[in-house]
Amino acid sequence: LLFVNQLQRDLEEVKELLTKATRKRLRDVLMMEKHKLELEIKNQPPLKPKEVAEEEKSSLGGYTVKINNYGWDQSDKFIKIYISLNGVQKLPAENVQVNFTERSFDLLVKNLNGKNYTMTFNNLLKPISVEGSSRKIKTDTVLVMCRKKREEKWDCLTQVEKESKEKEKAAYDTSDPSEGLMNLLRKMYAEGDDEMKRTINKAWVESREKQSKGDIPMDI
């Protein structure tokens, strides 16, 4: 990749020298070098799509920001991801690029207020149509349109989200109601602030006292 870039720079310099050369012998030498460089560049193997994307990123100037905030919606045919970027509508259209695969997309916004922005979604929940997917530039927003291969509802965007939800549900979905309630209380206690922990502790003590008096049969 670096070799190809070097050849391109050499070729540009030879062309520049040709515009300044006046002696025939020197021009002939430069023309031979120009043809040689053009042939070398032509014979280089083409870049693969992934390499093109990496080359695009490596050639970016300025500071690159990874986008983490987004909103999403869906219709029968599309998954729609909304990314807020102030002033994005002022950029040339070619500065907003999205590469799609059947289970992913990669967004690159170049030179927006001196910064570059990237967002990558891997392992989409279901396959999408690369040809039918696109992006739209709106006021302060980029809309990524992923065309569903099948017209069905998505519960979430990625396979990772689905697995996470299933694990969480399994932890609190049990045939024993008291066990499910205990698991829920433990989660609330672990994630709660001091006030939440005091409230749960108080409820725990009161339930123990009632149980010891025979007022309630179930241990919560």
TrEMBL record:
Domain of life assignment: Eukaryota
A Gene Ontology biological process term: heart development
Organism of derivation: Bucorvus abyssinicus
Function: May be involved in calcium-dependent ubiquitination and subsequent proteasomal degradation of target proteins. Probably serves as a molecular bridge in ubiquitin E3 complexes. Participates in the ubiquitin-mediated degradation of beta-catenin (CTNNB1).
Gene field: Cacybp
Keywords: Acetylation, Cytoplasm, Nucleus, Phosphoprotein, Ubl conjugation pathway
Protein name: Calcyclin-binding protein
Subcellular location: Cytoplasm; Nucleus
Residues in CS domain copies: 65-158
Pfam family, one: Siah-Interact_N
UniProt GO cellular component terms: cytoplasm; nucleus
InterPro entries to which the protein is assigned, alphabetical: CacyBP_N (IPR037201), Calcyclin-binding_UBL-bridge (IPR052289), CS_CacyBP (IPR037893), CS_dom (IPR007052), HSP20-like_chaperone (IPR008978), SGS_dom (IPR007699), Siah-Interact_N (IPR015120)
Transmembrane segments: none
Record GO terms (molecular function): S100 protein binding; tubulin binding; ubiquitin protein ligase binding
UniProt entry tagged with the keyword Secreted: no
